[in-house]
Amino acid sequence: QVQLVESGGGLVQPGGSLRLSCVASGDIWNTNSMSWYRQGTGEQRDMVASIFNNGGISYADSVKGRFTISRDIPKKMVYLQMNSLTAEDTAVYYCHANLQTPRGWGNYWGQGTQVTVSS
Question: 15-47 burial, b if ≥16 CB within 10 A, otherwise e?
Fold first, then answer.
């Protein structure tokens, strides 16, 4: 059974920084992509940043220049460094991965970690 577990969320002041981590565990054969999504209260879940097996990276326009996604392939981990945080970044952040397991390719989600930006 595949599990994604996020950590690193919390309360931070405007202008501050946080680093989110996500670790994947289970019988994983291959990883196509790992991503971070976020969902504010009453809002839809939106992609924040993605990193692909070919090295490609994409960001939502709202976080370009402030957030950085990276991964540690042997450890099956993905990180999101978030700088210059604003109140608009307040949301639950979810880790997502497109993975191959013995049952085939599938999409998997973590349980989410709350990020609150407030003074």
Answer: eeebebbbbbeeeeeebebbbbbbeeeeeebee
Q: How many CA atoms lie within 13 A of 36 on its CB side?
A: 35
pLDDT tens figures, 4-31: 999 999 999 999 999 999 999 999 999 9
Under a CB-based contact definition with an 8 Å cutoff, are residues 5 and 23 in contact? yes
3-class secondary structure, 105 = strand
CA nearest to 77, candidates 26, 28, 27, 34:
34
The segments of the chain whose pLDDT lies below 70 read none
